[in-house]
Amino acid sequence: VQVVESGGGLVQAGGSLRLSCDASGFTGDDYAVGWFRQAPGKEREGVSCVSVSDSSTYYSDSVKGRFTIWTDGHKNTVYLQMNRLKPEDTGNYSCAAEPGGGTWYALCLKLITAAYWGQGTQVTVSP
Prior knowledge:
Helix content: under 10%
Structural class: mainly beta
Number of strands: 11
Strand content: over 45%
Low-confidence stretches: none
Mean pLDDT: 95
Shape: globular
Largest sheet: 7 strands, mixed
Order of helices and strands: EEEEEEEEEHEE
Distance between the termini: 37 Å
């Protein structure tokens, strides 16, 4: 399994970015994908997670209503649309994938650690 992120960058507060996560190598759709971010000096936070098998989703309180996660029709790519970005959204965003579609909730709450991780992509939101 390989996990590859793309789409980070620099944006002004109030702007938008879309992140993509290509999780290839799974057989079928029984897995979950999550986006995590880590800012300097802070713990890694589960931002949003999705069950690829049934599209259940989780959003942290800090992004609820601003971020949207979804899978494409072929379910190989998971997108994170980030709107109304704030400076506090700045961080390194990593995508992670875990076998078992039912793991989406535990994954985001960090009750389990994902088996597969991408390299991460930097998101910087300027004031």
